[in-house]
Specification:
Length: 263
């Protein structure tokens, strides 16, 4: 269930981010197909509380810097570790594919930061994207590090209607994917959620925060490289945080490639 007014306000902010110039009430109403009365109330409410202003009289509304101040304050309180951002940039340069950092949020893995591939055919994603935690490489990597009770609470709420052609079809198959991923040292998706797309993900535990680092792209291009991508993730983590980082922080996940393996 979504709250329409909140959804509309966020859509308006994304509209300005794409437009990059002021918009009149008529511009907004036409773009979204909103009634003029609803458009008026949304714009004037945001203006009244300081989130929109009119840079030039009668030329439309535009977001104020208050949005930036608000988001900056939030990000500063719980930032993505700079080391993880360096790992993501390194992997994007090394592989040429789309790379992202995600975290768990209930039934979903949420993309916190993304570097998209520059290839014409690529995995397209933006920060804030949510994907089912039980049907994706990122999600499986995150699930692998939750304690059994929390993991089972999430899995009992899982549904299988919205999935790709090769996805698990029931909880036993999801659990089998988790077991295989732990033994292999990395987690995979091959048309599990998005048809014809595939990816590799490794969990990353830093202090008390759990992330997943994922590399993904068109399945025809990346499937044969899954093991190589997993090794690249572990190697880059070791370069940034030390050779024993994954070995000493991850539970029941063997490391890939030539990295030191858990007993």
């Amino acid at each position: 269930m979504t709250v329409k007014q909140i959804e509309n306000a966020i859509a308006l902010l994304e509209y300005f981010a794409d437009r990059k110039r002021p918009a009149t009430m008529a511009d907004v109403a036409e773009h979204f197909g909103w009634p003029r009365s609803s458009t008026f109330h949304i714009l004037t409410t945001l203006a009244r509380i300081g989130y929109l202003y009119e840079p030039r009289i009668r030329e439309g509304f535009y977001p104020t810097p208050r949005w930036l101040q608000l988001v900056s304050a939030i990000a500063e309180a719980e930032p993505i570790p700079e080391g993880l951002l360096r790992i993501m940039r390194g992997l994007a340069d090394r592989t040429g594919e789309t790379v992202w950092i995600s975290a768990a949020s209930g039934q979903y893995a949420v993309f916190l930061d993304v570097i998209e591939s520059e290839a014409p055919v690529r995995y397209a994603a933006k920060p804030g994207k949510r994907v089912p935690i039980h049907l994706t490489a990122s999600g499986l990597a995150l699930l692998s590090q939750l304690d059994e009770r929390d993991r089972e609470i999430i899995l009992r709420k899982a549904t299988f209607e919205d999935r790709g052609p090769n996805a698990p079809t029931n909880l036993d198959e999801v659990r089998a994917e988790l077991t295989a991923g732990r033994q292999r040292g990395w987690f995979r998706s091959a048309s599990y959620y998005s048809p014809d797309l595939g990816g590799v993900s490794v969990p990353v535990m830093l202090s008390d925060r759990l992330f997943a680092m994922t590399i993904a792209g068109p399945l025809f291009r990346v499937e044969a490289l899954f093991d190589r991508f997993a090794s690249a993730i572990y190697e880059t983590i070791a370069t940034e945080y030390g050779s024993d980082c994954s070995n000493t922080t991850l539970e029941n996940v063997r490391q890939s490639g030539d990295a030191k393996r858990n007993p």
